[in-house]
Every structure is written in C-alpha cells, then in structure tokens.
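User: Show me a protein chain along with its predicted structure.
Assistant: Here is one chain, sequence first, then structure tokens.
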Amino acid sequence: MRGDAMPASADAIRHIVLTSADAVAGFASQGLSQVLPQGRLRELFRLEYAWRSVDVPSRYVLALDDRGVLGALAVYPALGRHHAGWTPQQTFGVPGSATGWTRGVLLGSDALAANTMAIRPDAPEAAGTLIKGAFQVAAEHRPDFVCLPRAIGWQAGAGATAPTAPSGCAEDFEAILDLTPGPFDRYVMSLPKARRADIRRERRLFLESGIEVREEPLDKRLVRRLAPLLHQVNDRYGAGTGLADDWRYLDAMRVTMGDTVRALVAYVDTTPIAFSALWDTGAEWRSRCWGCDYARSEIRDYAIYFNILIHEPARRAAAAGAPQLWTGSGSTLAKQRRGARLHPVRTLVWRDAPGTTT
C-alpha cells in the first residue's frame, strides 16, 4: 500500500494512492462509509477481481483532510487489452484499426458498469483532488488515452479539473425506475394508463406461460449453467467476449458481491432459459446482466426479457422498499415505455493529457 500523502492542490485536501480494494475498505473507520456505502464497496471488489486478468493491477485514489476520507476514485490501467465487452472504438466511433487506442487508463469504471467515483456530500471540492490524483497515476503508465466512463452529472463535471480539456465525449442513458414501495401493482398504478396496460399484458403472458422464476444465490454451479446464456447475448450483439470471459464476469459477482447479488432465473422444467442478476446496493438496486437461450421460442412468446430484467426485479425491489431500480443502458426507449426515466451518463476521453503518448 502506498500510504504517503501527496499534495494535489494548494488547499488542505490531499490524496493518497492505495493498491487494493482491501486497503480502501480499511479506511472505513476514517469515514469512508460516508463516501462508499457497502454496495458501492462491493462493486470495487468485483471490478478489482475481474481486473486481475489484466497485467497491471487497479489503484485507488482517496481524498482526505482533517475530517477524514472525503472521496474515492479507482484507476484501472488497460494496457494492451481492454476489459472484455468494451472497446474505445465502440464508444467514440473511431475505426477498429485506428492507432493510438491500445493503451488506456479508465477512471472509476470498466466502461460497462456505473462509475463508482464518490465524494462526501459536504466536500464537493474533493472531486478535483481525485481527478488530479488519478491523472498523476495514469501518467505513470504512458497511456494512449485516459477515460472517465459512464459518469453522471457531477462526475462528468469533475472532468473540468483535469490537466487538459477532454478531447471527446460520448453520451448514453441509464434507464431508471422510480419505485413506489410496497406491492408491485402499487408501482404499476403510479404510471400513465397506456404504460400500465403494456406492463399488465406482459405480466399476464408471462404468468400464464408456466415458466418458473427462481431467485437463487449465484454459486459456482449456477455460474457454470448461466455463462452460456450470457455468451449467447454477447455474441449476438458483437461484444467480442469469449465464453471464458463471460464466465469470469459472473464468477466475479459470485466471489465479491456476496448476498447482495441474486440470480433471477427462468426455468422450463429443470432447464434455465433466461436470467438476470439483481444487485441490492442499498438505496438503488440494479438489474444487470441479461442472458438467454435464443433457440427457445418462449423468449419471444412470453415477454421474458422485460419480465426477467425489469418487472420481476422491480417487484422485488419495491417490496424491499428500494426507491430506485437501475436497469442499464440497453433498450432504453423500450424501458421508457415501461415506466423508466432516462438518466444521461457521459464518457469523457483525453488524448493529450500529460503522460499520454498521442
């Protein structure tokens, strides 16, 4: 662990750089829990576990002053290999053969999951310290580019404190359901009439199909059974992952997320035909990771996608009193028709920051 303080600005806030999520967790007694609740901390562990397949380990920048820990930002060097399922060419629309997009450093996210950069509500100035510290770490790797992926408003705004202005920005949207705690039908009744009709039709189709939904712990046996379903989806949409990559993605959830993740699996008899992963991260739940067997006609006939990825997770999250369910960035317009609002996320890239090679 590098625990030496390194001043990043002229004010009282400083930053330190740590080399493992375990070390970050060790700062909880100094106020980190005000910055990273347990669900977010689990996400750091998950990403670090997944990142072990990359040669260069992740690092963590913490901002501190006399009040304790004010913020945290993970740094993921992707040197010669990007996280399976994402390439900068996809996000920024440059040709796959373009040079200068091989060695990257990602800040706060693997470009697939929500950005985990976090600050205390009473310390907005800590965001700039985190960004400056992260760029210092990034420069050590001489990357082609530095990227702040999937940033919400204040996170993207913190990018203005980087050493140079971003050279590119790509916008996407997260589909979020604002839930009414209690029975699922109470949430449905809170929606406009036209949307209520669509949801009820899809629920009726699904419930009358005889397909069984099981909420199961994500154990080793289930990871082996579900990875081929995830691989089918990734293969159809050109994610570029192999079956081993998709197995690792699920296994990282199993190892690090503990009882905060459950698999919602659709079965025909004893055969799983579709699933999603439901994360209980506290105030916001997340429905992640759609997988299915496209050879099964039930996938098309019984609205399984929307039931397993949206309706069933929303029913469980509302019953638990969660105010929000985040459902990812795919099929956003279809999700909007089923009650979701679209929340913008931005991915910023720097090609000419200090230390970059382009």
